[in-house]
Structure formats: structure tokens, C-alpha cells
Amino acid sequence: MSTESDSDVKDELARKRLIELASEFYDQFAEGTVPEMEIPTRTKSNIVFDEKKDVWVYGDRTSTRSANSVRGAQKLLKAIYTIEFLAEQLDQDRSSTLRELYYLSESWDEERAQFNDQDESNQLVEDLEIVSEVTREDFHMRPEESGATIMGPLFLREQTRRGERDIHCQEDVGEGGYQIPNNPDTIEFLDHDADFVLCVETGGMRDRLVENGFDEEYNVIVVHLKGQPARATRRITRRLHDELELPVVVFCDGDPWSYRIYASVSYGSIKSAHLSEYLATPAAEYVGIQPVDIVNYDLPTDPLSDSDINALESELDDPRFQSDYWREQIELQLDIGKKAEQQALASRGLDFVTDTYLPERLGEMGVL
Amino acid sequence: MSTESDSDVKDELARKRLIELASEFYDQFAEGTVPEMEIPTRTKSNIVFDEKKDVWVYGDRTSTRSANSVRGAQKLLKAIYTIEFLAEQLDQDRSSTLRELYYLSESWDEERAQFNDQDESNQLVEDLEIVSEVTREDFHMRPEESGATIMGPLFLREQTRRGERDIHCQEDVGEGGYQIPNNPDTIEFLDHDADFVLCVETGGMRDRLVENGFDEEYNVIVVHLKGQPARATRRITRRLHDELELPVVVFCDGDPWSYRIYASVSYGSIKSAHLSEYLATPAAEYVGIQPVDIVNYDLPTDPLSDSDINALESELDDPRFQSDYWREQIELQLDIGKKAEQQALASRGLDFVTDTYLPERLGEMGVL
Predict the structure, then answer these.
(1) Between B225 and A227, where is the model more confident?
(2) Domain Spo11/DNA topoisomerase VI subunit A N-terminal: where (chains A, B) (predicted)?
(3) Burial per residue of A323-357, b for 16 or more beta-carbon CB atoms within 10 angstroms, e otherwise
(4) Which residue on chain A is closest to B89 by alpha carbon?
(5) Burial class of residue A137, CB neighbours in 10 A (0-12, 13-18, 19+)
(6) Residue B204 to residue A100, Cβ atoms within 8 A
(7) Which residue in chain A has the smallest CA separation from B148?
(8) pLDDT for A54
(9) 3-state SS string over chain B?
(10) Do B155 and B133 belong together in one domain?
């Protein structure tokens, strides 16, 4: 059970790691060496598959942030100020957004430590995550709220600043569902009656599944991804899989951007490959819309745009899409030159998705 | 109290209006006249202030949709098919999204009744709203979910397809708050302990207010607008004002796009001026960020872009921004050439917004 003191221990650990990092810089100074910080290069060409953990992680290539130039020294100065702010935030059990951190730097006495733009502060926080091996959530850095929700036979306890809240994600929520908090590690799963987890890209389809009672009929936890899913959404999906031992399937539009949504749930994103083990659900499978569904179900389509074609071709080079399945689907899509949205299933009637398409696909996949 | 039979009566009324509309076409045919449908012109130049209702509504200029051309006849044919679909949907107590309607039209037997694109079906549904005086929500047409939320001392009952849900928007929800359903008229307010309603543009600021306990300290219902607010968000804001007799204030970024967010809450939007009386809260006041705050509080700013300047200049022509207050603020902003985000208040510390800025502004406005 997650208790007050558990979270205190976690905060203290995060704080300790940050301070260790600062003392490394101190030691480097003391030894007379130029302080530096080495981090993995974060590009598509530097992600490798970790067979043991079953996720994509950064490879061996690294970049060095060194104080051997004025620019580099300023970067480390900014890191030190940020570490001080984060350590204080943890000590006081406060939290803040990435945007607030950027603005807050304007209040720092040393002008050269202030951030020039938010990209700079965002990147620094990611660097600190990688080097300290503590997640941003454990630094108490909140993202902008994403609005993603859960609906399904799941009873959970959320640890809020105002005390514990016990919530059943069908019986205690409105039609909008349970709002996933910024840090889903404040959630403990108390009980459930679910057979699998269905992650859904669009709100329109999420509402359709809920209206048609799909979550009740098939004992499904419906997670609304809301487009490219926030870290909180990916994290809770991973936890639903790990802790409740539930299969996870992902239901998106049938276009290259949606395959990337699936990839970020399943394989981890390139930008946060240092967190793949924490955020990705390697066992997550893709339900559709598959290019082959466009053909088999004769769905209404739009032609592929130039940027769609480029994105598909780039996926053929993406290490995450090297399976026979994905090569086949992507090549088929380039061949037919079409894409389809999940809501295009409505062309066969409003119940087609829940009466026919999903039962057929989930049957094929062995989930039902 | 909202009961099963209340909503049945409402559905039956919406259905009746739609069928009346279809029979008007029928009568026009029977009389040997060319069927037509007249609707107000929906542009900035055709909105006028309704002194009685205290909102902006469409003026006298109208456009006619007539069957006197093949194109026009097809438009009316599409209207008839859509009316049939909506009437059936109401009869069966189903609902659907605008996107589903567009795709669904592909299943209609008469090919010429099918929509060419979603703009066409969206516009038709708006036309039907205007002519029938029934809202889209009462046709059971759902928008794509917006993810907007409420946090505050409000106890409500939501009528869901699965029965009633009684939810306190502080005690029964997680940190993410209560998710506003697509049709907030399924909500009944049971009890509250609120002094006013604060609508907030960004998620980062909403989270800041909740973390700092602003809703508890000042008895505030915090409504997260999530950018340009969805109809459901504007509707529930209006109802909180009308039914609970609470002042409503709006807290946004300090840029021309945010003033339009305020305008859509307060005055109604140009696109849905036929619904102003239902969606707009004329008494809603603007807290900030005001251009004068940028000066007074010395906030971190970004320079105005060309499109910002154009938007401000267009607001000087917008009938909704003709008050002395807005002319002054907009002219000041053009003069200083700067804009600031609400989270820029963090440059004065994370508590500045709740300890200083909001209490000062709300005091000046007479809300506190």
C-alpha cells in the first residue's frame, strides 16, 4: 500500500540523487578538472533494442556537456540552479510545471543561470532525468494536463494532496470517466474485474465504446490516449499490464501518425527512451485500423498526403517498425495510397465497431 | 429534478421540431413552390447585441438555402436524410459524433445525399439547430470530448446511461478533477459551498491553483477551459452562474487569442451566436492577464507577432470588444508590443498567483 512515508522515501531518494550530481561537479572542480556531464545521444540512430527488458533504449553513443566553453559553463550553471530548485521543491513537497520552471528562472539572482527559452529548460530536465535515473515525475515536475481518462471495471485509490480517494472507474464517475492524474504513481489498484486494456486514440471512438457499453460487455478498461499519449497515460497503461497482468491492445486511426502513437505505447518514444522501461508496454498489440482493414472492410478513406508518405517511408527505416507485420502493413498502405480514421467504421453503422470489428479483430489476436 | 421522463420529453420535443421542418419542405412541394430554408448570415458583420438577453445574437441578414439549383436541391436532400437519421437516433435514445454522422452518410442508399466532407455535415447540423431552435446536444450529437474539468466545492448528480452518479467535485474526484460530460444538461446541482466560479485557460495554471488549494481557501469552483472552451464547458459555466447565482471570472493568457476565449465565454462566439443565450455568460468578467498587468507586475513577455497584431486590430473592429475597457487594454498592448502567459506569474514565485495576483485583482473587481 502506498503510504505517506513511501512517498517521503521516494522524494528523499530523488533529492539525494540530485545532490550527488551537484557534488560530482564540485569534486571535478576540486580535482582541478573541467566539470562535465555525459549523456546518451538522443536520436533515432542511437536507440537499440534491450532484449532483457524488451524495450528500446539508448545505445552507446554519448554527448558531453562540458564547462570548457562559456556556453558549456553556462549550461552547467543552469543545471546547478535547477538542481537547487528541484531539491528545495522536493523538500517542501511542492510541485511545478516545466513552463513554471522556465519562468521561475527569471527570479534567480544570477542572470546567466536564467533560461533563454523553454526548449532549453525542458532539455535540461530531461538531461537530469537521464543522469540521475530519477523520473521527472519524481522531481515533482508536472506536465501540462492532458485530459486523458479511464473507464472500466477498475477500483483504485488515488493519493491526493487532500487525502486518499477511492474511485471505481465505472460506478463512481460520470460519462467522462476517471481523469488520469499527472503522476499516476499516486494510484494504487485495489480491485478489478477486467479481462484486458483497450487504449483508444480519439475521443469520438472512446465515447462510442462507452455509449455502446463495450467496457461492461467485454470487461475492458478503456484508456483514452487523446492523440499522442502523455507520459502519465503511458505509465498507467504499463502499470495496468504489469500489476494486473492484463493484455493491452491499442486502437488508433489507420495512418502513419497513429502507428507512432502505438509505437510510443508499445516500444517507447525516441525522445524518452531512457524511460522506456517505465513507460512502454512491449506486450501491447495493435488492433487497428490496419491498412489491410481498409481493404477488407471497404472503409471510407482519404488519399495519403505527401507528408503521410514521407512518414510511412521514415517508419520503414525506424528500428521500432522492423517486424514482418509492420513492413507488410506499411508497404500495403503505400501501395493503396489511402488512410482511414477509426470513426470511418461508422460507415457500416454505429454498432459495427463494437458488434463486429473489435470482436473479430480481438478474436484473431487471441485476446477474446 | 432531472428525471428519466424529463429527458424523454426533451427528446420528443427535439424529434417533433425536426419532423415539422421536414413537413415544411413537404408542404412547399405540395403548394408547388420551390422548397427553401432561410437562415441568418453567420458573420462578424451580422451579430448584434440583444439588450434584453444581454448577449450577442444574429442580426437581420439572412441567407437562403433553396432547391432552385441542383446544388441547392442536393443540400435540402442531405438535410432530409440527416433529419431522418436524427429523428431515429432520438427515438432509440442513441447518440453520435459529428464525425460519425459524416461517415454514416456513406451508408445511405441515395448516393447524392452523402456528404462530400465534414465541413458540409457540420454546417448542416448548425443550420438545423438554428432553424429548429433545438441545440445539437438535444439532437444527441456529441462533440469530440474536450477533457475540460471542474474542481471545487460543488456536489452534483450526473444522469448517465448507467444510472445516476452523485459526485462531489473535491471529495469524490482525484487531482484531475471532475470530467465535464459532453452534454452537461444531464447534470443537476445538488449543493455547493462556493462564492464564485473561476474559469482558467491553461492546464498548468489550473494545476497550480489546485495544488495551492485556492479552490478550498476561497471557495471557488475552478473550471478548466482547456484553451478555446467546448460548448459543454461554456454551457456548464452559464448554468453555474444562472442556477447557483455565482459570479463568474475568466483567467487567461495576456494575448489576443485569449481575449477571444474570454469573449466566447462572456459574449458568445460568432459561429454559435444562435446559442448565445444558452452558452454565453454575459456577466462573466475578465481577471487577466491584462496588458496593464504586464506593465504593473513587470511580467516576462514575448514580443507580439504579426498575427498577434492583426488579431488585436481585428478585435478593435469586433462588436464584442467595443467597451472603453477593452479599447484601452488593446491599444495599450499594441503600444507596448508585448504579450504574457498566465504562467509567467511564476517569475515572482510559485505562490505569487494565489497569494498576491488573484486576491488583488479579485479585490479590485469586487469579487472578493
Answers:
(1) B225
(2) 75-140
(3) eeebeebbeebbeeebbbbbbbbbbbebeebbeeb
(4) A350
(5) buried
(6) yes
(7) A147
(8) 77
(9) CCCHHHHHHHHHHHHHHHHHHHHHHHHHHHCCCCCEEEEECCCHHHEEEECCCCEEEECCCEEEEECCCHHHHHHHHHHHHHHHHHHHHHHCCCCEEHHHHHHHHHHCCCHHHCCCCHHHHHHHHHHHHHHHCCCHHHHCEECCCCCCEEECCEEEEEEECCEEEEEECCCCCCCCCEECCCCHHHEEEEEECCCEEEEECCHHHHHHHHHCCHHHHCCEEEEECCCCCCHHHHHHHHHHHHHHCCCEEEECCECHHHHHHHHHHHCCCCCCHHHHHHHCCCCCEEEECCHHHHHHCCCCCEECCHHHHHHHHHHHCCHHHCCHHHHHHHHHHHHHCEEECHHHHHHHCCCHHHHHHHHHHHHHCCCC
(10) no
Positions of A annotated as catalytic residues are 103
Residue A121 has pLDDT above 70, yes or no: yes
Beta strands at B96-97 and B141-142: parallel, antiparallel or unpaired: parallel
pLDDT of A1 higher than 70: no
Q: What are phi and psi of B316, to 5 degrees?
A: -65, -25
Last residue of a domain, one of B98, B118, B142: B142
Segment A220-249 shows an average pLDDT of: 95
Domain CATH number, residue B39: 1.10.10.10
**Residues linked to residue B40 through DSSP beta bridges, in sequence order:** B62
Q: For residue A125, give its domain range.
A: 4-142
Q: B154-160 and B187-192: which strand pairing?
A: antiparallel
Q: Which of A175, A174, A179, A171 lies closest to A150 in space, CA to CA?
A: A179
- Contact (CB, 8 A) for B316 and B256: no
Task: Answer whether A142 touches B (CB < 8 Å).
Answer: yes
Same domain, A135 and A157: no
Instruction: Give Cα A154 distance to the centre of its chain.
Output: 21
Residue A81: pLDDT band (50, 70, 90) is very high
Decide if A52 touches B, using CB distance below 8 A.
no
How distant is the Cα of A228 from the closest Cα of chain B, in angstroms? 15
Tell me the pTM. Answer: 0.87
Q: B144-165 pLDDT, tens per residue?
A: 767 799 999 999 999 998 999 9
B99 inside 8 A of chain A by CB: yes
For residue B271, give the CATH number of its domain. Answer: 3.40.1360.10
> Alpha-carbon distance B177 to B173, whole Å?
5
Phi first, then psi: what are they for B352, rounded to 5°? Answer: -60, -40
Q: Do B168 and B51 fall within a single domain?
A: no
What is the Cα Rg of chain A in Å?
A: 22
Q: What amino acid is encoded at A41 in this protein?
A: T
Closest-CA residue to B144 (of A160, A10, A204): A204
Q: Are residues A112 and A13 in the same domain?
A: yes
Q: Kindly provide the ipTM of the predicted complex, given to two decimals.
A: 0.83
CA distance A178 to A240: 15
Q: Are residues B122 and B176 in the same domain?
A: no
> Both A85 and A170 in a single domain?
no
A116, A142, A168 — which closes off a domain?
A: A142
* B229 shares a domain with B338: yes
What's the confidence (pLDDT) of residue B135?
A: 87
- Across the interface, of A107, A173, A346, the residue whose CB is closest to B104 is A346
Nearest to B181 among A175, A203, A341 (CB): A175
Put simply, the answer to whether B180 touches A176 (Cβ < 8 Å) is yes
Cβ(B78)–Cβ(B68) below 8 Å: no
Whole-angstrom Cα distance, residue B97 to residue B120?
A: 14
**The total number of structural domains that make up chain A:** 2
Contact at CB, A343 and B99, closer than 8 angstroms: yes
Q: b/e map of A30-44 (b: 16 or more CB within 10 Å)?
A: eeeeebebebbebee
